[in-house]
Design a protein that fits this description.
This protein is of the alpha+beta class. It has three domains: 51 residues, no CATH class; 87 residues, no CATH class; 155 residues, no CATH class. It has eight helices and 13 strands. Strand 10 and strand 11 form a beta hairpin. Helix 7 runs antiparallel to helix 8. The N and C termini lie far apart (50 Å).
Length: 302
Amino acid sequence: MAIGFLCSVAIELTQLLLIAGRDASLRDVITNTLGSGLGASLVTLWRPILLCQAHTASRLATIAGHRLASRSRWNQLRRSTIPPSVHLVRTVGTAAGTIRHLPGNRPRRPSRQDLSPSGILANGSEVRDTLLTQRYRLQASAVAEGSTEHEAPIFSIFDDQQQEILVLAQAGHTIHFRTRTRAADLELRSPSVRLEGFPTEPGTPVEITILRDGPRLSLSIDNSQGQRRWTSRTTVGSGWAMLLPWEYASGPEASLGSLLWLGGLLIPAGYWSGRCGAGRAMPLVLLAVIAAGLMLVPGCSE
């Protein structure tokens, strides 16, 4: 653990003093040191954890199943978080957008807010309140300016510290959409979703609608070539999207990623359940956990 601490300090000091354009971080020193300690602990403890007796395996399987069944922590990380500061909106070309509460929200503030033109949002507090409800309709009008190799925002909202609040972007013939979540406060990724069908012919007008209703998120693209729509549902199986080390916007294939994520979470419970013995009731508990987990896999429809 001490070696890990010294190596991390050396790396961060090098970034601070010698390498231009790199930022040193105390958070990196802390996490690297904790990771070193965790690795050293696993070297010492792997035998009693993996080769445990039946009664210990039963307890570990129960703990693993309980952690999987608990959704509260993941729900908290997926919730929107927006700092109460000055909010800036940036639009590209002729892009314009509006956002409004869904019916039944009973907002105290006006239900419709404009998100253009570029500059400081005069109604920033109203937009913030609307986004935090996680029940809103976002509509955007834009004119295609051609294809893009990388993600290019159509319009976006940032605060005065350049923290990303909301982004609607074009990436080639797809659109990406995401809002800031509590995962970003932990240096994790705020999940991004995508929809194919954005026109790349310059001058083509296009209408984009984002419908957010709690865990349900619908994206639609309307242009002269027709309409494309996709609906996703965020559940505990979507936690993998917060841990990716690269930028990624999920689409219909996200269900497969969620299945693999849930399978990975079930491996410890399944292993320890198997060590409990054939006559134990733990395998039945595990089956119940698997059934509950499969019910949480996000559904999607075209």
